[in-house]
Amino acid sequence: MAMEEIRRGEMLYEGKAKQLYTCNLPDCYVMFYKDDATAFDGKKKAKISGKGALNNAISAIFFEMLQQAGVPTHHVRKLSENESLVRKVDLFPLEVIVRNLVAGSMAKRLGLQEGTPLRHPTVEFDYKSDPLGDPLVTEEQVAVLGWATEEEVDEMRRLALRVNDVLSADLLRRNVLLVDFKLEFGKDTDGQIVVADEISPDTCRFWDVQTHAKLDKDRFRRDMGGVEEAYQEMLHRLGGVLA
Ligand code: TMP
Ligand code: ASP
Questions:
Q1: 154: which residues sit within 8 A by CB, 6+ positions away?
Q2: Is residue 223's pLDDT more than 70?
Q3: What is the band of 2 on the pLDDT scale with cuts at 50, 70, 90?
Q4: How far is the CA of 215 from the centre of ligand 1 (A)?
Q5: Torsion over CA of 171, 219, 102 and 58, rounded to 10 degrees?
Q6: Regarding the domain delimited by 3-88, which CATH topology (the fold level of the hierarchy) does it fall under?
Q7: Domain covering 91-226: architecture
Q8: CB under 8 Å to 188, separation ≥6 — which residues?
Q9: Is ligand 2 within 6 A of the CB of residue 133?
Q10: What mean pLDDT is reported for the chain?
Q11: What CA–CA distance (Å, rounded) separates 42 from 38?
């Protein structure tokens, strides 16, 4: 895409951590990353200075890594400290979670210790709904409720595992374990399924390989402190800088 000047238009949508704007390119939106942090479906809220810029920078690095590996994404390019240009997509109402180790809700629900290994990565689908607390749904329920066809579910699962392979291998070289993460998928104007939303410490669990120190939003969810520092450390390990 030519590097023409992008002018932001009206705000179409405001989520917990981002805003979405129209722009002068008809097939694109501008995504603005806010400093707001929420957890537990928005019940816990705070502002973390610099988080928006850090997540925008980290997400851009991950999306570019995926595109180089042939995984289609909605990302076009980073525009400014807090903004990225993305392609318009129709989002599936789903959160697609990939897990390499037991942590978070899986540890809690099944009474398992965090860090317990899994025999192979798992993919789960959650129905995206804050009032319901993003409940886990079966692939069959996704299909019978019409949220995605069986073929689309298969494609999301295949892409999610590919994303896991690409990101896990890169992060390991940077001394980071990719414990689990959440993806959102959308369909672009050509009907292709692409990775959308963001990939950042808000949506992934990152542990230092040796110490298992948490470098992600669990520091906020669990009141551990050092949230901004952890996000900065992730950007640093990824070789990125704030523009
Ligand atoms: P969980 O263990 O709480 O189910 O979370 C799994 C992964 O998904 C973890 O990396 C955090 C991420 N996640 C989100 O990005 N958004 C959410 O709303 C939730 C619940 C989890
Ligand atoms: N992002 C979700 C929320 O704001 C949950 C989480 O990441 O813990 O509630």
A1: none
A2: yes
A3: low
A4: 14
A5: -30
A6: Phosphorylase Kinase; domain 1 (3.30.200)
A7: 2-Layer Sandwich (3.30)
A8: 72, 74, 87, 88, 89, 194
A9: no
A10: 96
A11: 5
pLDDT tens readout for residues 128-185: 999 999 999 999 999 999 999 999 999 999 999 999 999 999 999 999 999 999 999 9
Q: What residue spans in the chain does CATH classification 3.30.200.20 cover?
A: 3-88
Can you count the helices (H) and strands (E) in the chain?
6, 14
- Residue 185 to residue 192: CA distance in whole angstroms: 10
The span from the CA of 112 to the CA of 231, in Å, is 27
Give the 3-state secondary structure of residue 105.
Answer: helix
In the chain, where does the domain assigned CATH 3.30.470.20 lie? 91-226
Residue nearest to atom 1 of ligand 2 (CA): 39
CA of 38 to the centre of ligand 2 (A): 5
CA–CA distances in Å: residue 242 to residues 2, 7, 82, 214: 23, 22, 10, 21
